[in-house]
Amino acid sequence: MSNEAVLLEKQDGVAIVTMNRPDRLNSVTDEIRTGLRERLDDACKDDEVKVIVLTGAGRGFCAGADMDGLAATSKGESSASSGPEERDYAKNEVEGFDGGFSYFPTLPKPVIAAINGPAAGVGFIMALYCDIRFAKESAIFTSAFSKRGLIAEWGVGWILPRLVGIARANDILFSARRISAKEAENMGIVNKAFSDEEFMDEVLAYAKDLAKSVSPRSVRIMKQQIYNAQGETISENLESSMKSMLESFGSDDFKEGVAHYMEKREPNFTGK
User: Fold this and answer.
1) What is the model's pTM?
2) CA–CA gap between residue 92 and residue 141 (Å, rounded)
């Protein structure tokens, strides 16, 4: 399906997926939700793509749910949603995350949030479910829910304390206060905040280096391990990780990883 609400561009092994409602700070509608799922799926099924960068058009990342839709809901009204088109979505072996925007960990490729402006409400949650998060120094974060009479939706009460700790998660969710990119970096909400001028260049340089220099197979399996480990005991994780390591010894990417190091050349990983 063609969906101009979400765009996809490819650069050097990186898919840039852009929410495209700049006049509304990319607030979430059915078109955004559907288009995002489909464009991410397109990127996952493209063998040229090794890394996905998710961002927003204009001056915002995602301002949360569209306020017109929330207003209708508050009056007991609802709009019909066709949902994503029927397709066989690309998935890894991560269990238990397939809902809302929590499905990002089930994508078999790494997803980097390029937070170029306000990330609020469900936009904040969307960023949290990305694997790595970078932000412009001018970006602002807020959960927003308590100021709308809402609660910690879409599993944010599960993932946020794992990133920042319980006390900080309580502060962020209870107060719905505005958090600067620098504070978000200090808390661990984002990996790094970059100057506005250098932001996208820095994000793409990181993503392109990831696409070029590391094994897609290794990243795919490590992503599965990290998210599945959240529900494992240490003994279960030791057992599953050792099994995966032994399987890695027979992979093409392991052989290439050794060969390119010994031959002092750039790697040519296939993801197999």
Assistant:
1) 0.89
2) 29
